[in-house]
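Weekly modeling sync, notes
Attendees: AB, CL, MP (scribe)

Item 1: holo prediction request
CL wants a bound-state model with pyridoxine-5'-phosphate before deciding which constructs to order. AB pointed out that an apo prediction alone won't tell us much about the pocket. Agreed to run with the ligand included and paste results into these notes for async review.

Input as submitted:
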Amino acid sequence: MSPRLSVNIDHVATLRQARVGREPEPVAAALAAQSAGCAGITVHLRADRRHIQDRDLRVLKEVLSLPLNVECAATPEAMESVIGPKPHMVTLVPETREELTTTGGLDAIFLQAPLRQIIRELKASDIRVSLFLDPSREQVMMAAKLEADAVELNTGVYSDLPFGSDPSLELGRIRDTAKRAANLGLRVLAGHGLSLRNVGQIAAIPEIEELNIGHSIIARAVFVGMERAVQEMLSAMGAMNGAGAAP
Ligand code: PXP
C-alpha cells in the first residue's frame, strides 16, 4: 500500500509574508489540498515566524477535517505556542535562524534529557510526537527509548543526490532504518526534498506510512494550481485511490 501524503503549506505563507499581507491565504491552500485527496496538512512554526504564524495554527485546527502536523523546535517557547491549538501531532525538528530550511535530523542521543521532558509534556496534552531524524539505527533506537510515537526519516541527503548518481546506498540506509523503527513499534514517516522525480522509490518502502512534502508541491502549484499539484504527487506516490486514515 502507498503511504499517505501530508502536504506542507509553509511556502504559501512565505509568499504572504513577503508583503506581510493577507494573500495568498495558507488556510485556503490547505483546504484545496484537502479536497485534492491528501491525508494531512503540515506546517512548521519557526521561532522567527518567517512563514506560518500562530493565527494560522488556530484557524487550520478549526477548519480542517484532516490531521494537522506541526513541526517546531524542541524548546519551551515552541511548546507554549503549539500545545494550545492541540494539533494531531507535533514533529520536533532542529532549528537555527540562519538555515533556509531544516538541514538535518535531531540528535536524539545528545538531546535525550530535554526531549524526554518535551515528549512527556506533549503526550500529557494528548498530542502525538514524531522526531525528525537522519536515517540512523542509533537515532531511532533512542526515539523508541524516549517513547516517541513516530519518527520522520530525513530524505534530504537522498533528495540532494546529483542527477544521475546511484541512490542505492542512501536508499539502503533509509530502508534499513525504516525497518528497524517499525520493529521497535514506531510509526515511520519520511520527508524533505521529495519531488515528482524522486518520490517513487521512497513511497515504495513498505514501512513508510506517510510522506511530508512541501516545496515541490507548492512550486508546482504556482503553475498548475494546488489541487492538480497534489493530485500529481499522489499519482507519483502510487496513492491516487487511497489517502487512508491518520495514524
Ligand atoms: N519534513 C521536515 C521535518 C521539514 O522541516 C520539511 C521542510 O519544512 C519537510 C519535511 C518538507 O520538505 P520539503 O519542503 O523539501 O518537501
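Recorded for review: The longest strand covers residues 68-73.
Action items: CL to compare against the apo run; MP to circulate these notes.
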